[in-house]
């Protein structure tokens, strides 16, 4: 069987073979060479220049290790490995940076786009390679099954099962395949914690992957961990929580990302075109628009970022007289607040950025609140919280220190900050 060995920074030698080698060569996967894994976080952590392709290969490798550890049959193993390799092909430029803004315009997140690409409903073909669904079908792998592991067949349930007798995915009690891609401890998460920690230099993401793989089991159709793996599992949950508060939701990184999102916002109706772009193509696209869009690209290019001029906690946000919390759960509501703050000082709303990260987190990382992993002890299942006070503490820990943050150009910091306080706190 034809194969290639790729030397990976995190996992060492990764063997890519058969259908996975052909998938790797498709334009949809190769595009990920030019999508940074952590978006504009590299402006704060200069080493964070790694790509979605590196992460996809890493997730593929972890999925293979998990499948081997669980002794899955070849058919199931192939589906999970294909899903891990393809799970991020629908990402827009700069990864999660534009996710909530594009979703507000088209009603689709990156998993929806990924599903359409796998099913062949959106094709990015260079004419020289087979399409993703063709490659999967040629190797006896159902594109429908792979897409369901990534997106889920029913988003209201998010439960997927593999029926060994009928050879098809359906919803029911057995859901370990889905959990290997989207669970509290999955291939995606185990790779990105190790990878992002390495490239940012933040040691918080170091986890004991080998111990986790040794203690994974399938029990009544669920992916569970044995009692001996609890310390390693606690390490994952702590690493995830700390990486979000110190890296993924770093204040300055958020400001940079929201600057870019604000520049893109007027063009979200072109979401299909934007989703197909690479990072540098998006910058080029914005520069071609001139005006504010080119100004933002130049500011990001030379790291001339907006500054925080006001921030309040989640508790203070709920007590604020000048805002309706429900109105801030969507982009349109946030834009309205930005206009009100700007108009108090007769300044363009383009100079004001309001960040309410709570709702956006539910879209970009729904697993963040999942800490109660099932633990198998003496053939009985227990909640992790039964054994781990640390788990219970993490359920209460906030991943970001602000409920609402306002940013603006440095020269307007005092003026906009005063205006924001008056508008939000009614002082």
Q: Class of the largest domain, according to the CATH hierarchy?
A: Mainly Alpha
Largest sheet: 4 strands, mixed
* Global geometry: globular
Strand content: 5-15%
Provide the CATH topology of the largest domain.
Hypothetical protein af1432
Number of domain units: 2
Radius of gyration: 22 Å
Notes on the protein architecture:
The chain is an alpha+beta fold and 427 residues long. It folds into two domains: 3-250 and 367-396, Hypothetical protein af1432; 306-356 and 403-427. It is built from 21 helices and eleven strands. The chain has helices at residues 18-24, 27-30, 52-69, 74-86, 99-106, 110-119, 132-138, 143-151, 176-181, 187-200, 209-215, 230-248, 251-264, 271-275, 279-289, 291-301, 314-319, 331-343, 357-364, 389-396, 413-425; strands spanning 3-8, 12-17, 161-163, 168-170, 216-219, 222-226, 307-312, 353-355, 374-377, 380-383, 404-408. It has a four-stranded mixed β-sheet with strand order 5-6-9-10. Strands 7-11-8 form a three-stranded antiparallel β-sheet, sandwiched between helices. It has a two-stranded antiparallel ribbon with strand order 1-2. It starts with a strand and ends with a helix. The model is unreliable at 154-173 (pLDDT under 50).
Fold blueprint:
Blueprint: E1 3-8, E2 12-17, H1 18-24, H2 27-30, H3 52-69, H4 74-86, H5 99-106, H6 110-119, H7 132-138, H8 143-151, E3 161-163, E4 168-170, H9 176-181, H10 187-200, H11 209-215, E5 216-219, E6 222-226, H12 230-248, H13 251-264, H14 271-275, H15 279-289, H16 291-301, E7 307-312, H17 314-319, H18 331-343, E8 353-355, H19 357-364, E9 374-377, E10 380-383, H20 389-396, E11 404-408, H21 413-425
Parallel strand pairs: 6-9
Antiparallel strand pairs: 1-2, 3-4, 5-6, 7-11, 8-11, 9-10
Helix pairs in contact: 1-4, 3-4, 3-10, 4-8, 6-8, 10-12, 13-16, 15-16, 18-21
